[in-house]
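Re: that chain you flagged

S.,

Sorry for the slow reply, it's been a week of failed gels. I finally had a moment to sit down with the sequence you sent. For the record, here it is as I used it:
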Amino acid sequence: MGSVIGSSTGPELAAALHRLRSTLARMRAEVELADSDGAAPPIERLLSDLREALEMLGQVESAAFALVRVVVLDDDERLGELTARSLRRLGYEAESSVSMRPLRPRDVVVLDLGLVESLGPAQRAALKQARPIVVTGAADRASRALAADLDASDYLVKPVELEELSAAIKRRGSGV
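Prediction finished late last night. Pasting the structure tokens below so you have them in one place:
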């Protein structure tokens, strides 16, 4: 499995567990209050809290097991999903998207350069901070310069072997 244990795991785990416990306690209180009042529980609020709790559980798992989450950003939706699926088979927590979403701590981004032009300044800044692994069909100087501007941790030219991508993810996950 692609994983690395960082020095910040302890505080991250404690904070994530605290947030998870608070959300679950709020859900319990909502259900108990509805039960004691003889009213229907607030379904929309409970569903929202449940989504939040599941997200926090993912954060707890990531901190506890130092999981590497991989976000595959590719303008080719099918190729992005195939890549994410292959990475999941290797044990990574991987998802794919054709658009940028807010990144979580320790997310490893696998980026097709074709998406960069559609990103706003804040998204580019977040991407730069994430030090993405660039996977692209372009091998020209301009593309390499764009990857360097994004502070890419690796530059891989398509087609990329899964083992090569996994090695890049492990390097990125270990901060190398």
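What I noticed first: Confidence is low (pLDDT under 50) at residues 1-7.

Talk soon,
D.
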